[in-house]
Structures are given as structure tokens and as C-alpha cells.
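Q: What would this chain look like folded?
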Amino acid sequence: MRSRQIPVAKNASPAIVGIDLAGSPKRPTGLCVLHDLIAETHVVYSDDEILHFVNDAHPVLVPIDAPLSLPAGRQTVHDRSGEHLRECDRELLRRGIRFFPITLSPMRMLTERGLALKKQLAAMGYQTVECYPGAAQDLWGIPRHHKDRLGLLNGLRELGLRGLKKTATSDELDAATAALVGRWFLLDQGMMLGGDSGILIPAVSNPQGRSKKLTAL
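A: My prediction, written as C-alpha cells:
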């Protein structure tokens, strides 16, 4: 198990930490600490590395790209009773946004890790929220990483993010996306799909096309 502590640059403005969580600590997790519109990204693996990073940044909000709730009627990710989709999932479908339901086998490990991380961060006093970078990217009209990583990088830069390196991985760019959605939320430009325990997305008045007003946030 790899574990290392990454120093986070100190900044006077409130921090937001976006996390693109991997289902397994053997796979890379992307992290982004955002001060205003200045992003600093890293890749880590273990839960300890994630917790150390968040604690060093002291964020006001931690948007996480992982399911942080279960469908109604299900007590655990392995529970086969209850509903297949959450209300926030249905809202994504209504908007034509593609996603993987958490009841699919590959998503169960990610959901378990996400729920455990949410609990640990809450015990440390940090506010978490579920975020889906792919949904935000669709709404902003910028490509998802699997289609065009450099296009995603440039799209985030056009939305105002500074500090992103050209070599940033897909995980880092999704973490940066999550952090930016968190910033929009704090500026009253975000909305929760499916209630307070649902998914945070940017409030975009013209889906699939960015406006000058919104890119200036």
C-alpha cells in the first residue's frame, strides 16, 4: 500500500478540494485543491493520502466523483432489494446525461469506497457532496476525458481555471472539474439533483453551450 503526504500550497482564500475517486486504492485517484480559480492537482492512491491532502487544504467543500448515497430501500451496496436507480440518477436520465448506475457490479466497489470516505471526512469536520464531472462537462459543452483529454483541459481553461498543466491526467482533470462545480455551487451557480443527498451539477442556462457570464465566475 503506497502512502505519502503531499504538501498543499498555502493560500488565504477558501479552498475547495475535488476528488476523482478510484474504486480501488491500486488505481490512481485525482485530487484538485482550488483557491479562487487557481488549481493545483495531484494523483494519489491510498485513503490515507486522500485524507492527509484534504486535511492540509482545510476546504470549505469536498465534491467527490463517486456515489455517496444508495437507492431507496437498499441498506448496502450488496443489497438486491429496493430500487435500481436513485432520484438523482433519474434526473440525469431526464437530461440525457449518460452514467453508470451504482447497482452495476463495477460501481459497487467505488460506491463502498465513496461512502466510507464520506464518513471519514464528516468525522474530520469536512462537508462532502457527490459530483459527476461527466455531467458537468456535458452541461458546459466541453469534451469528457475519454473523448478528448486536451479538449477537456482547454475547456476548463476557457472556464477560467488556471494552474492546470498540459500533462495533467484524466483523473486530475476530472478532479479539477469537480472542484470547479463546487466553486459554482458556493457562488449560487450550482444545483442539487435529487435533493440534498443527490448529485451536484452546475446551473447552466444554456446546456451544451457556455455563456460569457458563466465563464467569468
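Residues 15-215 form a domain with the Nucleotidyltransferase; domain 5 fold (CATH 3.30.420).
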